[in-house]
Amino acid sequence: MELTKLNNDLKNLITIDQAWYYGIVPHKQEANSLHILISEQKNTAELKNELEIIFGKKIILQNESAGFVEQLLLSNYPKANQDERLNTSTNETYRLNVNDNNFLETLVKEAKDLRSSDIHIETYSEKCRIRFRVDGVLIDRHKLNKAEYPTLINKIKIAASCDIAEKRMPQDGRIRFKFNNSNLDIRVSILPTLYGEKIVLRLLGSDASHINIESLGFNKDEIARYELAVKKPNGIILISGPTGSGKTTTLYATLKVINKPTNNILTIEDPIEYTLDGVNQVQLKEDIGLTYTEALRTFLRQDPDIIMLGEIRDAQTAQMAIRAALTGHLVLSTIHTNSAWGTISRLVDMGIAPYLLASVLNLSVAQRLIRLLCPHCKKQEALDKKELPDNFKTINAATHYLAKGCQQCYYTGYKGRKAIYEVINITNELSEQIKLNVTSIDPYLKSNKIDKLSENAIKLFIAGDTSLEEIYPYLINEI
After folding, report:
1. CA torsion angle 424 430 431 434 (round to 10)
2. Are the beta carbons of 67 and 405 closer than 8 angstroms?
3. Do the Cβ atoms of 117 and 82 come closer than 8 Å?
4. pTM score, whole prediction
5. What φ, ψ does residue 88 adopt, rounded to 5°?
6. Does the first or last residue of the chain, that is N or C, have fewer Cβ atoms within 10 Å of its Cβ?
7. CA–CA distances in Å: residue 252 to residues 80, 320, 328
8. What is the C-alpha to C-alpha distance for residues 25 and 77, in angstroms, rounded to an integer?
């Protein structure tokens, strides 16, 4: 059943107090009967008799998941204290008190336990709120009084060593916490807005011990191609994708594989998201002239075996990376493109000669993060092929799953993410294609059984792990 807003006639059949006390939502009214949605756990003969006495007509109870009924209640029968439910609906442990000296630690611990990547603290004309980014999507967690907001901002500024008197200009800072013997670095960004300063806290897990290349999402063939490329002593490995697609995590997992006592590994990053023992990591500081290009220039005088660049942003950095690879080093980096082969065109546009690129590029990878459906509330339905893009009407699936939303997934319908990849080894044949500046290699990918991003997305969809809505952007890119 789709989540809907009730019309006023149906909604007014019961009061807010009745709806929440019994956990019921009216669904359909007939002459002598009333159909009511209720969670299966509450559906009893005694309750049915009680409701028939209250409403004076036959009651037909229809079972739905507890989370679905609660979401209907939230949508159609909002209570005066509904905003406060955000603080307690998922975990009674977390109660935000801005005047508490440990409030920031409590907030960060909550975000960490929910696997959040960012905390957004923002103010508007009438309200202030705190949102967490979980699985790539922002969800409301706390509401704040306007009077408390300046106190909260100042406490964060002090913790991040920022200027509390400066309210007109953006500021950046860092905070470090220690939880359960592990360090957590937080990057603080402060932005002046119309109604006050907005703060975003980026949580950077400093321990990379939990990152393993086998658990990232590569299939058997992809990981074999990937590991073959990283074993080469020189050349370039590029990972492409938008911000937040997991590129840096893949790079760290790669560094763990090749981090040996016999290798001198240097990295230049912005920011340093994880620390790796045995790897020399440098934080980018453009304000004092420590840019990617300048760091690379110095790296080449540091007798490196392996160099990791956080990102190839411009032509000068790209040229330095090519130079490093040509002089016998293995270079790993990220770049923003839509596909693995699109990386070639991007570098050529930056002024890299195709014949140079063909000689140094070992591997091009594109990756994305796909949200996985919450196993507690996903609902199976027949698949209408009309909903698919024209190129994919032949997807071999009779049914699919919809994201519904429940308390377990904070009513998003999704829980967790999985990386999908497009992994292209640059063979002699592809090197010739690069020299000719060929823009599409679909026949080569098909004949060599190399899955594109869209094909890996479809596999997750057919397996029932994700929704059509989630993979649709990757399908229309193929049209």
Report:
1. -90
2. yes
3. no
4. 0.73
5. -125, -5
6. C
7. 47, 21, 21
8. 9
